[in-house]
Description:
The chain is of the alpha/beta class.
Amino acid sequence: MTNARDTILGRLGRPGGDPAAAYARIERRYLDRHHDDGLPALLAERVADYRAVVHTVTAAELPGALAAALRPGTYVIPPGLPGTWTEAIGDRTTAEPCDLEAVAGVITGCAVAIAETGTIVLDHGPGQGRRALTLVPDHHLVVVSAAQIAADLPEALRRLDLTRPLTFVSGPSATSDIELSRVEGVHGPRTLEVFLT
């Protein structure tokens, strides 16, 4: 007789197995895609609902839009970020490693974005930097291409490498106390700007 723990571990795969393959084997009886069209517009709407700033720009407009969004101070550029994105910024950037408390913000890419929930997912690969890079600076500028937008969470999970460290970002960092007084910037950037290309 097996217990619930063995049943769950059997479905997910044993240690050393392929988590993505185990995820794919799980039978699902629910709708895993609620939208087929208009994903960039839906993502923009949902991201804005979280009090994030959304910019819809072309690839040619992106460098100028990023430069215009900068605040006073230095911005961190993670390794692997396309140089064309920051060509209009000049000497206002620094590379990793650096003192994250001394910088104004960070410019990153992402692994995937989820239109239904307005969530940006970072797997800390090229152009995204280490996890602390997107949690310590006060201003996070993130670039999302239309090809990176998934309709819903199940589709996003299929696109991700589940063995990598994942950070799900739904708007600027915020928390509320028991009296529902909202405080922003407690566990991450106070300002999130998303650039949809």
